[in-house]
Amino acid sequence: MRRVVVGAVLAAALAGVVACGGSDSSGGSSSGSSSNAGSGNANKHVNIAHFVAIQANPVEQVIIKSAKDTGKANNATVTTFDSNNDVQRELANCQDAIASKKYDAFVLKAVSGPPLIPCARAAMAAGIPVVVQGTALGPKQTTEPQVEGIVGSSITLSTTNGVAVADLTNKACEKAGANPCKVIYLFGPVAFDYASITRKTFNDTVKAKYPNIKVVAQAAANFDPDTGAQQARQLLQVHPDINVIVNDSDPVAIATEKVVADLHKDKIITVGAGGSKVGADAIKAGKQFGDTVILPATEARAATLMAIRAARKQPVGDTSIDVTKDLSPVGTIVDASNVDKYKPEW
After folding, report:
1. Are 31 and 127 in contact (CB under 8 A)?
2. What is the DSSP string of 218-239?
3. What span, in angstroms and rounded, lies between the C-alpha atoms of 270 and 247?
4. Between 225-238 and 250-262, two packed helices, what is the crossing angle to 10 degrees?
5. pLDDT tens, position by position, 194-239
6. What's phi and psi for 291, nearest 5 deg?
């Protein structure tokens, strides 16, 4: 019965997407304004519902730990809701969390942004402040709230990452001294907004800025090293004159580096994405040219603090954070020139 009732709330909230005002708007607005009123209790214990895309992912595990640690350090309990990369499951988790009436704020890390708008609206209609983490909640890649009443956003924009992957690829091509520079691109799960938008942005940026780069083949590695290695081996048989292999996941990059070594194709340059410890170590060892920055612990910490402060009706501080642009000490790219200054978070 719980899910039926809250499902009706979600349906009503979805209908409100095209309307101005309404109960979701007033609920969200009161949460947003009160969170900045500065009249809250700084010591009040609060319960935060933290929705994540897929708990099995190592990046997500860092995010979960950072959120829980931040809660513990600030007299808050953070409960994780795992969506297992399934939008419908995330919506069901949202229904359950609202119906339970246990939570003082939501941190919403969407599998896919637009379909989770009803969750945010329904939560705000129930008087629960909502903070957006990781993935933009709406059709635009922006840190600005796209749903009225949202407290704020701590987002690692996929467009920022996609541009960084393209810029890093160009730097690798310059090192290779190839023109045209022939590239293989291995991408992540298409159902995951972050991966699919990174891929689109990468391709669009290459087309617009780097006519010397020719992406001759693309394949889904789905963040899986074994799949990535298999795809790289097969594509290198078809395209033996490749200059650069681009991976949007460091574990996949490490796997493709091993394939390149096994095939004795020493001139092929590999680049990764994700800013992980294995990526940074590979750069230091000279096995990987570069990496793009992701700071999952920093992202989760900022979002959780926003939610805790909003739950206590305190000022939340900066409410529009593009994590790699605004909080990274080295910018969006890691390579041999700055890897010693970079501290990986996963």
Report:
1. yes
2. EEE-TT-HHHHHHHHHHHHHH-
3. 8
4. 40
5. 899 999 999 999 999 999 999 999 999 999 999 999 999 999 999 9
6. -155, 160
